[in-house]
Description:
The protein has about 200 residues and is an alpha/beta fold. The protein is about 35% helix and about 20% strand.
Amino acid sequence: MVDVDGDLVVPAEASAIVVFAHGSGSSRGSPRNRQVAAALNDAGFATLLFDLLTDDEAQDRANVFDISLLGSRLSAAALWLRSRPEAAGLPLGYFGASTGAAAALWAATEPDGGGVGAIVSRGGRPDLAGDRLPLVQAPTLLIVGGDDQDVLALNRQARARIRCQSDLIVIPGAGHLFEEPGALEQVAVLAATWFVRYLRPDT
Length: 203
C-alpha cells in the first residue's frame, strides 16, 4: 500500500463521480484534465484527480507504461471512494487520457474496480489494455483528434475488440493534446454527455 496525492471535488447534490487517470509523464495537475474536470463539476459531477505513481515511482519510465500497476492504483482509488461519506453510493465513471485510458479499461475489469458505469478516453491508448478489452462491460467512449492519425488507428483497432456499448468520436483538426481552440471544450461536452447518459440515466 502506498500513499499518493489527490484532489476530490464534490459539488452540492452531486449525482455521480468521475475518477481521472492521467497519461504518461503527467500528474493530477494536468491542465487538460483539470479543465475537463471543472466542466464536469459544473455539470453536477464529483471528480477525483490523483497521482497514479509516487514521485519515486514516476522516475522509472517502466512504471509509466505498466498498465497493470496503473490500473491497480485506479481500482484502489475506486475502492477508497466507496468508503468516503461524500462519495459513497455515487455511480462511478473513469476518464482516462493517453496511457490512463488503458489503466481505466484495465481497472474496470478488476473485482475492486467493478461497478464502473461508464468510461471516457481522451487521446487514449486503449490498445495497451490488451486482453482486458473484450472483458470491459462499462459503456466506453473513445475521443481522438483527427490529426492524431497513429493514435486514431490504434483506437479503431481497440474498439473492434470491445464487446460492450462503445463509440469512437473524432474531433476534426485536433491533435494528440487537443490544444487547438475549442478542441478541449468539445471533449468536455462529449464526456459530460456520455456520463449523463450512462451514470445519470434518469436525468
